[in-house]
Amino acid sequence: MIEAVGLTKRYGAKTAVHNLSFRVRPGMVTGFLGPNGSGKSTTMRMILGLDAPTEGRVTIGGHPYRRLPNAPRQVGALLDAKAVHGGRSAYNHLLCLARLSGIPARRVDEVLGVVGLREVAKKRSKGFSLGMGQRLGIAAALLGDPQVLLFDEPVNGLDPEGILWIRNLMKKLASEGRTVFVSSHLMSEMALTADHLIVIGRGQLLADMSVKDFIAHNSADFARVRTPDDAPDQRDRLAAALTEAGGSVRPEPDGALRVSGLPLPRISDLAHGADVRLWELSPHSASLEEAYMRMTQGAVDYRSTEDTRAGLLAQPPAGYAGPPAGYAAPQAAGQTAGWPNPYAVPPQQTWQPPQPPVSAPVPSPAPAPADPMIERDSEDAR
Amino acid sequence: MSTPQHSQAVPPVPPGAHRAAPQTAPQAFSGPPPGGHGYASPIPVRRTHLGHAVASEWTKIRSVRSTVWTLAVMFVLVVGVGLLMALALGSQDGLGMPVLAGGFFGLMLGQLCVITLGVLVITSEYSTGMIRTTLTACPQRGRVLVAKALVFFLLSFTVTLVACALTAFLQAAMIEGKPVPEYIDPQMLNEETAATGQAVASAGEWLGATVGAALYVALLGLLSLAVGTLLRSTPGAITTMLGLVLLPFIVSLFLFTESVREFGEKLREYSVLNGLSSLFRIPFEGGSADTGWPLLWLLAGVTLAALIGAYARISARDV
């Protein structure tokens, strides 16, 4: 059991973690989610006594970590797969950790077998892949047969077989009654592994609830509706009818409609009333990924901007011959308006019928919107 | 809800079962224990102490190549240069310096290897990130530092002592008994040499050239370890130590004008190099009565102060 009360960490003017209080209970896998820079690793380090909290406290089984008489026998942690001396073999790395807490050397062979590194045990860890490094870190965490386990991004760099292995391992450890606390940014992974979620953004607690509750609280179910591809007017008609009936309608990239706020039978009735045939009407529940994105939208520290390549297009210097022949910008000029984040669009946005083709981006005789780069390229051809 | 496992909350296990228990531990448990009180390892949890940390640090220091390389280079330098000195001195008719003094030149270079190893013992943990693993496994950080200092000091002292003793024996065997040239001031000679006119090493010279020299270099290495803990950077700590060892002596050579000469002499007298050369009875400054031991105790005091600073720093700081 891990308990944080009013945990706060400030680095100078920047507050990494602010007034965080939560409990991680034994017997289940607790996922620790948050965007990059939200304070997950800082919190993990404070739990392990590596960083001292500015305010508040965090205890494991009622004790601050640094007061535990034999910490590795009670808490196992994977913080950073590369936190090993590369010149030391996997076996010796684990052996010096085992010595530190009085664990017999035979246990080292055992955990090497558990993580599947027995064959490379005598090799220097410098040559390990990221996945092998993760396995070595997990071996170190398991060494003391601890009741509390912390994993910071454990599936980073693992292959699908490794991901499945760690997922089952964490579930098994939790089923044995241990406390398992896993940070990850892979929502799909947490949906399969975690029973409980603690979500933070900008160092503050956003949610502390079971996975099921989390999805229910943070997302609405929706229906996918598809009209015949050969009759676009039917789609517009249906969208109008559904909006009028109080539903929220959004187009999907493949031409289907995403309807929320209306039960399935009602959608069917409205379609019938509008004389629209349906090719698909299916219920969907939002994924954990979506619920998470919706929740943390406002708390993302690092947001990317669209690469418009304006710096490349502006006034090439004399003698600059332009990009080599055959180079084409991956996106047509008319489509660079922005990379759409489907979750950033508020669900209330209503369906706009497609504009008449008068407002084509470039009035050009070419059949497709012409790319100015390609045009200039052909002029420069030698 | 909390279960302090380090107390008697673990199920009773007969003392003999401890060794066999890990074999079955991961498989033995299925399903949470009743009451939702969490997991309890079948292996008893023992309180750890400094002995565990020393065993761990010994495993660490012997399992990296830098230890082998730095100490091997030091050994070769000390014995090799000592042998060359003995050969060179042996080809001359008289002996114008103490019998064991030739060991100084190899050790002057060899000490740089010990300094490098002392720095690497701690800074390699910071540069690789290993320090987070170590301090997670042993949150009693002072204990880790003390164990590191003990293991490194004993290892470097032993290896240096063997190298110095071997060199001293070689020199004694090859050049002892040579006549002392007449231009040497008899005041500078030890009693036996002055009486017989033949170069002989006294007991004090033997002690200084072996135990004293090894202790001095091992202390320098320990000071490097403390500096490495304070700076947490390999290049920073090695540069600092090289500056500390070499700069005062070099600077003192340029302080020869009247106004600063006295300061230059003091600087030279208390320089790290003068301490080592005095132990071999060839002081750069301070006269023949200076045996090097006072400077060795001074270095020990400085090292202790630096270690106390390092202890306070590593205990308080975020890693």
From TrEMBL, chain A:
Top-level taxonomic group: Bacteria
Keywords, sorted A to Z: ATP-binding, Nucleotide-binding, Transport
Signal peptide: none
Domain ABC transporter: 2-227
Compositionally biased residues, Basic and acidic residues: 373-382
Residue ranges with Pro residues bias: 353-370
An example molecular function term from Gene Ontology annotations: ATP hydrolysis activity
Region (Disordered), start-end ranges: 329-382
UniProt entry tagged with the keyword Repressor: no
Family: Belongs to the ABC transporter superfamily.
Name this protein carries in UniProt: ABC-2 type transport system ATP-binding protein
UniProt organism field: Streptomyces radiopugnans
Classification lineage: Bacteria, Bacillati, Actinomycetota, Actinomycetes, Kitasatosporales
Automatic annotation (TrEMBL), chain B:
Positions of transmembrane segments: 68-89, 101-123, 144-170, 206-231, 238-257, 295-314
Region (Disordered) residue spans: 1-42
Listed name of the protein: ABC-2 family transporter protein
Presence of the UniProt keyword Membrane in the record: yes
Keyword field: Membrane, Transmembrane, Transmembrane helix
